[in-house]
Write a structure and sequence with these properties.
Blueprint lengths: L9 E3 L9 H13 L3 E7 L9 E2 L6 E2 L4 H19 L6 E7 L2 H12 L3 E6 L5 H6 L2 H8 L4 E5 L9 E7 L5 H14 L2 E8 L5 H16 L4 E7 L3 H12 L3 E4 L4 H7 L16 E3 L1
Parallel strand pairs: 1-2, 1-6, 2-5, 6-7, 8-9, 8-11, 9-10, 11-12
Antiparallel strand pairs: 3-4, 7-12
Length: 282
């Protein structure tokens, strides 16, 4: 099912709906910039072994003695307060609270409703469990079909001026670049397509491919091409991010080979979701 009413919306899943977290602030501010409505979403978990007790999952400890209905009502009251704060930045904000296990419930909801974007926060260091099994946000980025924006928990909101889209053997990827061009136009930002290629012999044909799409599809004058040669990938990738002073990184989530190389041999995408700027995963 594709609910057309939702495809225009930015969904934000706050890590803690009792606070105005970095991902909430960033998502609301971006929604205002691109003129899209927002839906704050939350999923509350009932533990069967404790039934009818319930546990608030978004940053609060278990609350004994609450039924599912009471839990949902309490969460909705807190989400209503969060919406009021958000509406000081952008008026078009709704919220929705459901009962269910967060990860599968979010994945199912997002695939059914296909929003424009999901915004998540990233907190804490990468521990052993995260290395082996991934994190909540990295697993969701792999599972769902809509773009996912992962915002570091300690980041501050700033205008997007420089976007770096990392790909491998660039072949147009019109859907992703169209999405980025629309975002860049809203901010007046520049986009760099960072293309991971085998060597210098590959540069000319890849650059011709870029020029072809640039001239026929996008015609966005603040878009350029930068080759990342495979043999010096780590160094050139870091140098590019510094040189461009990037505000936003973007990747194609299903390019696992590229992720593995960028992550220094680790296939978990969380390894490259650790810069201090937001990361957009298609």
């Amino acid at each position: 099912m594709n609910n057309n009413k939702e495809t225009n919306k930015i969904y934000i899943y706050p890590s803690d709906f009792r606070l105005f977290t970095a991902e909430t602030h960033y998502g609301i501010t971006m929604a205002r910039q691109v003129r899209r409505p927002v839906k704050l979403i939350d999923f509350e978990t009932i533990f069967p072994s404790d039934a009818p007790n319930a546990s608030v999952t978004a940053g609060a400890p278990p609350v004994p003695g609450l039924t599912a209905e009471q839990l949902q009502a309490e969460a909705e009251a807190k989400m209503a307060k969060l919406r009021t704060l958000a509406q000081y930045i952008w008026k078009e904000v709704q919220y929705e609270v459901e009962i269910g296990s967060p990860e599968p419930s979010v994945a199912k909801k997002l695939d059914e409703e296909s929003p424009y974007l999901l915004v998540l926060g990233r907190y804490g260091d990468l521990d052993l469990a995260a290395k082996w099994f991934g994190t909540f946000e990295s697993r969701l980025a792999r599972k769902i079909s809509c773009p996912v924006l992962i915002v570091p928990g300690d980041s501050t909101v700033r205008d997007v001026q420089q976007v770096v889209y990392v790909t491998e053997n660039f072949a147009g990827e019109k859907e992703q670049v169209d999405w980025l061009v629309q975002l860049a136009q809203a901010y007046g930002a520049k986009i760099t397509i960072a293309d991971v290629i085998e060597g210098k012999d590959s540069f000319e044909p890849q650059f011709e491919t870029f020029k072809s799409y640039f001239n026929t599809s996008w015609k966005y004058h603040h878009l350029d091409y930068f080759p990342l040669f495979l043999k010096e990938l780590d160094r050139s990738f870091e140098s590019l991010i510094r040189a461009r002073n990037a505000d936003l990184l973007a990747f194609q989530s299903r390019e696992q080979g590229l992720f593995k190389r960028l992550a220094g041999g680790d296939s978990d995408i969380h390894r490259i979701l650790t810069p201090d700027i937001p990361v957009l995963v298609f």
